[in-house]
Specification:
metal ion binding; Protein-Tyrosine Phosphatase, Chain A; 39% helix; Folylpolyglutamate_synth_euk; 21 helices; UDP-N-acetylmuramoyl-L-alanine:D-glutamate ligase; mitochondrion; ATP binding; Folylpolyglutamate synthase; 6-stranded mixed beta sheet; alpha/beta
């Protein structure tokens, strides 16, 4: 692409004719990463007056210097803004990668931060922790586990990451995010304590973002006197800052796959070694069925430190002879997470001498890598109710709004996107078909970090979307009220370039018509077309139309066309339909009898969408 072909130069008055901050962007066919067009994208980022004011406001906002804000006068958003200055996940990962040559140093640093905060390792033993790691499903496993134990009348703490809408979601008491007031008070108390105990000889005076929140969760759980704390590992396991926990009651490992490969290793076996690092001597641990290689690694890790590791039987074994279990989370893959959660909850109850933990059934010993099989038991009514009542937003979540159905799943690895596509296709097969009029399928996608977006997009191709929409994980172009979702480690042009790259990948895949049959497609539905297709349906174009928007809000406004009864922005931004594809697509979306929107690729993207579609989550 020739420099200037977008007419992206800055103007002193008004906006460029070529692209408006609210418009859909479309890269010319010749655009590629590393081409002169990258300069145009940078010009694009700086040619938006609103975006420019936003970026300057976030970068110029000073962090606490001298005396920090008073906890009595500072607001929740003051606390969040200050928390953001402690680095975001991206820079934390870079820091960890630089230090991983001596990983023990990382855990020692976390122990030092804990001591400076006023706690000792022995204090964490009081929390009766359930420690869970894995590549996919660890958050859902934690949610199932927490809800089961809460159904027994226990007071629960739950630490998870990332958050979707507000950072306080990461720390929950009895399933509810802590209040803004509790978050604010504990934040400033901890922040002041760490500031007061800074050592001039220390190379890092304040913990990074995730470490700070981990410390804060421990303090809150202790003060709130929870009966137990479910703690989700951040990244990996062995060197994750949550692994200063010495005496958990029980540990769990959900399904393993490739993610964070630059940090954890480029094979599932290497990743399994990292995940098995949370095992502790004499502490029971459970895992679901894994591929042979990583399962053998987990077995060896457990044997080396005398950790009793058990393989979870499938959920069908626990259902046998009783009623089928109803899960609050959709998707066939959630059955594996529920099976692990049942074992974790039962083991915790058993370790704490609780009654009513489920009657044992006869079972055969496991022959899989010589791992003993976990107990096969009849789930109690408390367990059944816990599984049924589990809620975990942003994971296989469906919102039905008039003609629009939003399918939200933060899948961001190859295996989790495969599971997401299976769930999405199954949901479409079970939908209520409109009496007349076409149905339209829309993909809203973004991907971040070191993940391979081309591989993820290729998995989504068989869904045959009519429109593919890409946008950064920015809820609005302006940051006002969006402190919880700010990221100081990337620039606006970087995230837009990534979206343009995603669009290029999608266009290339479309041209190649690379739609391998990755799953066994069922036969045609009686009296209808193949089940992958919707009927009645728009004629599928030779290539999916694709668009890039500057933020999530503009993408949702184009997709919904004012037809979502909850998401009703004041007025569409000027220029939203300037691009021919955006204009013609808007007419199609306005006339469609049903619109099915799959939002996936990033939990942060899903969080931004939920912030707009579910305003109550921001209150």
């Amino acid at each position: 692409m020739r420099a200037g072909s977008y007419q992206l130069e800055r103007r002193q008055r008004g906006l460029s004719r070529g692209v408006h901050a609210c418009e859909a962007l479309r890269a010319p066919p010749g655009w590629r990463a590393g081409s002169p067009g990258m300069k145009d994208a940078r010009a694009l980022a700086t040619s938006w007056p609103v975006a420019e004011r936003w970026w300057e406001s976030t970068m110029e906002r000073p962090g606490p210097s001298g005396r920090p804000f008073s906890a009595k006068t500072a607001s929740f958003q003051d606390a969040v803004r200050t928390l953001n200055t402690l680095q975001t996940n991206a820079s934390y990962l870079e820091q960890v990668k630089r230090q991983r040559g001596d990983p023990q140093t990382q855990l020692e640093a976390m122990e030092l931060f804990l001591a400076r905060s006023g706690l000792q390792l022995e204090d964490l033993d009081q929390l009766n922790i359930i420690h869970v790691t894995g590549t996919k499903g660890k958050g859902s496993t934690c949610a199932f586990t927490e809800r089961i134990l809460r159904s027994y009348g226990l007071k629960t703490g739950f630490f998870s990451s990332p958050h979707l809408v507000q950072v306080r979601e990461r720390i929950r008491i009895n399933g509810q995010p802590i209040s803004p007031e509790l978050f604010t008070n504990h934040f400033w108390r901890l922040y002041h304590r760490l500031q007061e105990t800074k050592d001039g000889s220390s190379c890092v005076s304040m913990p990074a973002y995730f470490r700070f929140l981990t410390l804060m969760a421990f303090h809150i759980f202790l003060q709130e006197k929870v009966d137990l704390a479910v703690v989700e590992v951040g990244i990996g396991g062995a060197y994750d800052c949550t692994n200063i926990i010495r005496k958990p009651v029980v540990c769990g490992v959900s399904s393993l796959g490739l993610d964070h490969t630059s940090l954890l290793g480029d094979t599932v076996e290497k990743i399994a070694w990292q995940k098995g690092g949370i095992f502790k001597r004499g502490v029971p641990a459970f895992t679901v069925l894994q591929p042979d290689g990583p399962l053998a690694v987990l077995r060896d890790r457990a044997q080396q430190i005398s950790c009793p590791l058990y393989l979870c039987p499938p959920l069908e074994a626990l259902e046998e002879g009783g009623p089928p279990l109803t899960l609050g989370l959709e998707g066939e893959h959630q059955r594996s997470n529920a099976a692990l959660a049942l074992q974790l909850a039962r083991c915790w109850l058993q370790q704490k001498d609780h009654q009513g933990i489920g009657e044992l059934k006869a079972s055969q010993p496991s022959l899989q890598w010589q791992l003993p099989l976990a107990p096969v038991f009849q789930p109690t009514s408390h367990m059944q109710h816990g599984l049924r009542d589990t809620e975990w937003p942003g994971r296989t979540q469906v919102l039905r709004r008039g003609p629009l159905t939003w399918y939200l799943d933060g899948a961001h690895t190859v295996s989790s996107v495969q599971a997401c596509v299976r769930w999405f296709r199954q949901a479409l097969r079970g939908r209520d078909r409109p009496d007349s009029g076409p149905e339209v399928r829309v993909l809203l996608f973004n991907s971040t970090g070191d993940r391979d977006p081309a591989a993820l997009l290729k998995l989504l191709q068989p869904c045959q979307f009519h429109y593919a929409v890409f946008c950064p994980n920015l809820t609005e172009v302006s940051p006002t009220g969006n402190e919880d979702q700010q990221n100081f480690t990337v620039t606006l042009d970087q995230v837009l370039l990534r979206c343009l790259t995603h669009q290029q990948h999608w266009s290339r895949l479309d041209k190649e018509q690379a739609s391998p049959n990755l799953w066994n497609s069922p036969g045609p539905e009686p009296g209808g077309p193949a089940s992958l297709l919707l009927a009645p349906c728009l004629p599928h174009p030779v290539s999916t139309s694709s668009l890039v928007f500057s933020c999530i809000s503009h993408a949702l406004q184009w997709i919904s066309q004012g037809r979502d009864p909850v998401f009703q922005p004041p007025s569409p931004p000027r220029g939203l339909l300037a691009h021919p594809v955006a204009g013609s697509g808007a007419s199609v979306l306005r006339e469609a009898a049903a619109i099915h929107v799959l939002v996936t690729g990033s939990l942060h993207l899903v969080g931004g969408v939920l912030k707009l579609l579910e305003p109550s989550l921001s209150q």
